[in-house]
């Protein structure tokens, strides 16, 4: 199982699933704590490949095993958080938040510091989506304090990236930039490819807002290259959308269309609701840039509806703003 986890962390998802399948055959019973850990590992390999439909029942079964075997509370907390991740992928943000809060409570009861920090980061993301930025900032700072104290480098890198995103939402771009730069540097240093992809994509967005288009392009292209290279479908779809945004800002509309089409194919295939909404929004801006007002309005209204259905206040606000600008 641990070998499978190593392959998953390296972005070698098929190899991870192959190793885990071989390991599962060695189990005589399928209701032990170790088997539950195997299910979580297998679930994450599917999840990272973009197959949330395969991942979610594995995570849920693991929760059931841990609850009924008196397993280590750390295992239960990790499985609850995994179920939360699956709900987040499906755009079910209230359910995701409930599972993250359950994970936090379990981890706090067990005094499991890494688990506490991870759950706090997840909760930060949910409040960020809801537009409750002060609360998002509070949860993420609590997470970062723990991570720095215990030397949890991956957690620190993620917290820095999340804090940068919150500051962007607050309109503090110059303050956000060093957080994203430090995050990217840390992810690269520890060899976390998935973290690097997210951080590089977010940094592209910051650079774009700061009108440093070349840096934005460099970061977006690097993120796409790594995601495609390791077969991380969710990350590839997201990073291609970001690259399409950069090309639109560069007025290279044909290349923007090409990247968004590739992103659309991936995102629709894996069914990631948040990315679908972000893509609808970006298509709206692309059609606007092409002078196709009716298509732009249709896409932006779709984005507004999708963001609203998930309770994503920040998305609702930016979609409404774009529609108002289109109508004036």
Summarize it.
This protein is mainly alpha-helical. The chain is built from 17 helices and no strands.
Describe the structure.
- It is a single chain.
- The chain is mainly alpha-helical and 328 residues long.
- It is 85% helix and 0% strand.
- It is built from 17 helices and no strands.
- The model has no long low-confidence stretch (mean pLDDT 93).
Low-confidence stretches: none
Strand content: under 5%
Number of H/I helices = 17
Structural class call reads mainly alpha
| Mean pLDDT, all residues | 93
Rg calc: 20 Å
What distance separates the N and C termini? 58 Å
- Principal-axis shape equals globular
Features of the shown structure:
single chain, 328 residues, globular
Helices and strands in order:
Elements: H1 2-9, H2 13-24, H3 33-49, H4 52-69, H5 73-89, H6 93-109, H7 113-130, H8 133-150, H9 153-169, H10 173-190, H11 193-209, H12 213-230, H13 233-249, H14 253-270, H15 273-289, H16 293-310, H17 313-327
Helix pairs in contact: 1-2, 2-3, 3-4, 3-5, 4-5, 5-6, 6-7, 7-8, 7-9, 8-9, 9-10, 9-11, 10-11, 11-12, 11-13, 12-13, 13-14, 13-15, 14-15, 15-16, 15-17, 16-17
């Amino acid at each position: 199982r641990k070998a499978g986890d190593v392959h998953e962390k390296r972005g070698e998802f098929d190899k991870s699933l192959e190793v885990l399948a071989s390991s599962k055959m060695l189990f005589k019973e399928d209701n032990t704590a170790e088997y539950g850990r195997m299910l979580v590992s297998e679930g994450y390999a599917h999840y990272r490949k973009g197959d949330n439909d395969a991942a979610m029942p594995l995570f849920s079964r693991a929760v059931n095993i841990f609850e009924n075997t008196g397993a280590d509370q750390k295992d239960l907390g990790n499985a609850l958080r995994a179920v939360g991740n699956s709900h987040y992928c499906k755009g079910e943000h209230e359910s995701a938040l409930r599972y993250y809060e359950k994970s936090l409570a379990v981890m706090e009861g067990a005094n499991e510091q890494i688990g506490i920090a991870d759950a706090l980061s997840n909760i930060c993301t949910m409040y960020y989506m809801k537009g409750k930025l002060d609360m998002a900032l509070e949860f993420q700072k609590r997470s970062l304090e723990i991570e720095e104290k215990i030397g949890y480098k991956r957690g620190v890198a993620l917290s820095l990236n999340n804090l940068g995103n919150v500051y962007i939402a607050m309109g503090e771009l110059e303050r956000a930039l060093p957080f994203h730069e430090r995050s990217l540097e840390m992810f690269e240093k520890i060899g976390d490819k998935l973290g690097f992809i997210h951080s590089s994509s977010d940094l592209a967005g910051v650079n774009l807002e700061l009108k440093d288009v070349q840096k934005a392009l460099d970061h977006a292209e690097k993120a796409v290259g790594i995601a495609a290279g390791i077969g991380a479908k969710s990350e590839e779809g997201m990073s291609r959308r970001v690259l399409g945004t950069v090309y639109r800002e560069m007025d290279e509309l044909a290349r923007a269309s090409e990247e968004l089409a590739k992103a659309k194919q991936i995102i629709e295939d894996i069914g990631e609701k948040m990315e679908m909404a972000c893509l609808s929004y970006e298509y709206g801006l692309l059609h606007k840039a092409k002078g196709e007002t009716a298509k732009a309005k249709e896409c932006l209204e779709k984005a507004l509806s999708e963001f609203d259905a998930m309770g994503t206040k920040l998305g609702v606000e930016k979609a409404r703003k774009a529609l108002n600008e289109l109508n004036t």
